[in-house]
Amino acid sequence: MTAASRAWALAGALCGLVFAADQAAKAAVEANLVLGEKVAVLGPLELTLTHNRGIAFGLAGGGGVALILLAAVALAVIAYLFAANATKPGMWIAIGLLTGGALGNLVDRVRADAVTDYIDVASWPAFNLADVAISGGVVLLLLLYLRDAEPKADDG
Q: Which pTM does this prediction carry?
């Protein structure tokens, strides 16, 4: 197995894991909470059931088909980035997180025209596991590119 095919396999496995965990958590919340209900978990952390028709944290609400198309374009860009950099150390993790999260929220949009959010932390809009994976993937992707952009010391 080449390094690139191994990276694709690892990214695919992580994507599948994130997607499955996200969908399972959303199903559990939908089955056990009513819309707007809040359940205290620990400190400022609560579980709630909300439906988000916008993008992250409710921005651009009511986007419908436009948001589905935007997500599809974002997934294509992610695939392009990975195809060009599959063997970059850590890239498979960033791409697996991003793709799994994006697919989790995309399935919600296609199925219900809204994303199920359930993690509620004081003073922050509700979000879900897919959002956490997307955010983590973006941060890791930025760190990977910033690391490569650092000037190298001359061996002189």
A: 0.85
